[in-house]
Amino acid sequence: MLVISIRGPPNSDFVLGYPGIDASWPRIVGIVEVRSNNGRPFKLRSLDLQLYRTETIYVQTGKLGISQTKRQESYPVGKKVELFKPGQIQSSSATFLSLELRFVYTLPFGENQLSSSICIPKVAESIYRLYATAVEDSGSKDDQRAYAPVTIVRYDTMSSFLEFQRAKTLQVESIDSIVVQRVTLQRTSFGPGDSIVMVVSILPNLDWKYKSKKVKVQSITLKVEEVIVFSLRGDDPASRSRTLLGEKIAVNGEKLGEDGYSVEITTSFPVSTSRGKDGVVITEENGYPNILTPAFTSSASLYSITYFIVVGSKLSNCKDIEMRIPITVTPFDSVICDAILEPLNESIKVASTADDRQPNPIFVTASDAMAVNKMGILVKPNGKRGIYIE
User: Fold this and answer.
1) For the residues of 213-233, what is the DSSP string, one character each?
2) 384 φ/ψ angles, rounded to the nearest 5 degrees
3) Are 205 and 256 in contact (CB under 8 A)?
4) pLDDT at position 68 over 80
5) 356 inside domain
6) In whole angstroms, what is the distance from residue 54 CA to residue 150 CA?
7) Which value, to the nearest 10 degrees, does the dihedral of the CA atoms of residues 87, 93, 99, 104 take?
8) Residue 269 and residue 187: Cα distance in Å, rounded?
């Protein structure tokens, strides 16, 4: 029986580079260590490394939505890496006391980029596990496996990118065509606690000047809405919506002038502590990101998560107006996004000259006279053994 362990580099995360940014070469780096459980020499036929993704969704079913259906899928992502195979060392009959197999596991990129790890309790979850599978050369065909949780966080939705910092203006006409509601967002990506700044304008339709003069603005409402769509494999998709933020600005019946009515609205994106199914605050040790937002923009095989800012105007002598503006939600606030830019650029420079070959493994064979010392064991003068500490 083998003892297999997977660990990351000292004082570093498993994941190097920035998932979602292909130029930074997102990858998992670490060491697979193999020993026998009783300290005896062993022969190894093969050892493979494969990343798996597990998605889970909980869908409300029934007319009243009081029952819940759970669906789960687990599948490999990325290419399998052969860390050890026959003929890798000179003697195919070599027996080992231990192996340390350093590895570089390149994450999928381009259209196959991985979605982020996520945990919305009793709604949707995604986790990644890196499995090491070993087969002994002892006549048995049974695989022996070990895994390590891996946290994947994408960085391509950061608010510091130029595409999200451009102001966005949308407008919609009332059903009776008397007025137009125009909304200008200063930016379109938000993280926990980020300021949401927008200008809402109610403008008269010049083709209906007489009717538009009678219009009064009673109130402006603002909501941030989260929509999760579940893919049910053969059934019609199901969706779940919830309001994360709601505000109402009272205008008290102000009449619409020739220039219309405008108001600047500033609020903050919600902040919350991520908690798991048992209510305990999430840490990255279990493969989920520890973030300060309930969720973020994401798309996976079983679900997709999108966000909207919903702006409504309650009017007199005119039909009310409501419009939905799609936005991007990132796991990081604007301060963190700005701070990440410099190490991200440095990571891209490093990736452009990096060597993607697998590092050389470290073998400790049973025939090695220094095998005991290489395994960190000190043989005392009386023949007893102990752990060697420098």
Assistant:
1) TT-EEEEEEEEEEEEEEE--S
2) -80, 155
3) no
4) no
5) yes
6) 12
7) 10
8) 13
**328-357 pLDDT per residue, tens:** 999 999 999 999 999 999 999 989 887 777
Give me the residues paired with residue 309 across strands. 224, 325
Tokens 């199914």 found at: 277
Domain range for 125: 2-156+341-387
Q: Which residues contact 282 (CB under 8 A, 6 or more apart)?
A: 119, 274, 275, 276, 288, 289, 290
> CA 361, CA 31: separation in Å to the nearest integer?
9
> Cβ distance 313 to 217 under 8 Å?
yes
Quote the CA–CA distance of 8 and 15 in Å, as a whole number. Answer: 9
When divided into structural domains, the chain yields a total of 2
| 240 plus 347 within the same structural domain | no
In a domain, 336, yes or no: no
334 CB-side CA count, 13 A: 13
Examine the domain organization and report whether 177 and 254 are in the same domain.
Answer: yes
Residue carrying the six token digits 């990736």: 351
Asked whether 166 and 198 are in contact (CB, 8 A), the reply is no
Supply 12's token pair.
């570093």
| 114 sits in which H/E element | none
Distance of alpha carbon 261 from alpha carbon 284, whole angstroms = 48
Per-residue pLDDT of 351-374, as tens digits, reads 988 777 777 766 665 555 454 554
CATH of the domain at 111: 2.60.40.640
